[in-house]
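I need you to check the entry underneath: sequence plus fold tokens. Let me know what the token row says about the fold.

>
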Amino acid sequence: MSLLQEVEVDETYIGGRRHGKRGRGAKGKTSVFGMAQRNGNVIAVIVPDVRAKTLVPIVKEKILPSSIVYTDEFPSYDSLHRLGYKHKRSTMKAKYMFWVMLTLTR
């Protein structure tokens, strides 16, 4: 399955509540990379890490190059425009809306 047109992508960490560090680098969490086509399909992939060398090949496999890809400001997405994607960055508020949309499209 390929996503096209307008696609929002983001990484997150899933797991139970733990004391200590939150987000990137938190122990006991699973890294998940999500891609949601606006008004369309959603793909979520468990990934070993959220580095560009991990995420970009997934984008290339799952999202057509003519698409507009919306991301946050995380540096792993810096190369998307060089790969032919129209790349637009969004704010933390938009990132929250992505996960709301992901939840509603399930």
Remarks:
- The helical segments are 52-62, 92-104.
